[in-house]
Amino acid sequence: MLQLLxxxxxxxxxxxxxxxxxxxxxxxxxxxxxxxxxxxxxxxxLGVEHAFTLRFQVDPRQPLSLESMLSLLDLQIVRKKQxxxxxxxxxxxxxxxxxxxxLAQGVEVHAV
Length: 112
Prior knowledge:
The chain has 112 residues and is an all-alpha fold.
């Protein structure tokens, strides 16, 4: 990245007319630096995408796009709401002491 910054600073101080007069070797050097930087950035993007897929349990073969991530987020929201609703129903059962006793009586305790 430092090379890219140096290259950018150097090019900013070059007049467009001077650029046309620049030697072929120098232009090749600039292009080689830019290609290397592009490859490094591509690798960095792949690393970030891989970390994202691991963290959010996304299939790494699934293309990452705004639309696919929004769909995944919508699905996760639905699942969390279902879990929350189920938990609310379970907690509501404990509001009634009779239901707790009935639940406890239905559970067998096995000695180990």
